[in-house]
Write a structure and sequence with these properties.
By secondary structure, the protein is an alpha/beta fold. The protein has 3 domains: 70 residues, Winged helix-like DNA-binding domain superfamily/Winged helix DNA-binding domain (Arc Repressor Mutant, subunit A), CATH 1.10.10; 89 residues, Periplasmic binding protein-like II (D-Maltodextrin-Binding Protein, domain 2); 107 residues, D-Maltodextrin-Binding Protein, domain 2, CATH 3.40.190. It is built from 13 helices and 12 strands. Strands 3, 4, 5, 6, 9, 10, 11 and 12 form an 8-stranded mixed sheet that branches. Strands 1-2 form a two-stranded antiparallel ribbon. Strand 7, helix 10 and strand 8 form a beta-alpha-beta unit. It is globular. This is LysR family transcriptional regulator. Belongs to the LysR transcriptional regulatory family. InterPro entries: LysR_HTH_N, LysR_subst-bd, WH-like_DNA-bd_sf, WH_DNA-bd_sf.
Amino acid sequence: MTHEAAGPAPLAHRVPDLGAMELLLAVARLGSLGRAARELGISQPAASGRIRALETRLGVALVRRSPRGSRLTDEGALVSEWARRVLEAAEAFDAGARALRGRRDSRLRVAASMTVAEYLLPGWLIALHGRQPGTAVSLAAGNSAAVARLVLTGQADIGFVEGLDVPAGLGSAVIAHDRLLVVTAPGHPWARRRRPLEAAELAATPLILREAGSGTRQVLDAALAALGGPAPPLLELASTTAVKAAATSGAGPAVLSELAVAEEVAAGRLTPVPVSAALALTRRLRTIWPTPHPPTGPARDLLALLPSAGTRQ
């Protein structure tokens, strides 16, 4: 008598539910399981149980709890990056499904760099929903180079980037300005320094960095270009959340947007390091679209909500 080999369990039985992944990302962003639970409208015991169930399912510890709050383990930071991609795909699926229900003319495909997607775009999309509640929005988040490719190839109607340059074939307008900060955990020696960090010392120090192609990395590379660029990274990570998690754990200094670390700095989980005024760590945030035609329809409606979007480049 022969037995057929059992196939793999259905995907739904092997992949954690979306709610658990959303909770993990909220813990990474807020640094507190309690605050994450309140944001998602669940009790703290329920949130703790959901995290424990996720850890049991994956077989690794994801969150380290302490009297000062909760932070992701190294494994948790990696899982959070995968979870972010799954949630982005789920949001795109939901937006696409809604568009199929008779609202194709009100569909807006947005691509945004990580800083804009996490810290600015949600408010803009809420305002757009208030003005145009029938608009179905799909969002693709990635680094600035990836966003430019999506807009150039027609896979996004409009994009938001934070890099220094705009590729040929794209129109652009400045929508905001941003500053990069050197940050570190409170226990790092740089957290106690009073003398500004000079470019040479920053360039010689291995840092926790975003990947090449991100707007954050482009600005840092340009600021240190005269010194041969930054030293080989201590860690090179593909999301702002992962960089912050590594920095707050004490792994080393990081360079991130002031927008991205405002909450961690206010809570004392990260400390900004003073830098020399000669270091050019400011940047313009831009919206981009395919030339020669300016944005129309929902894309135009979204830009109309941004007071600085009239400064064309």
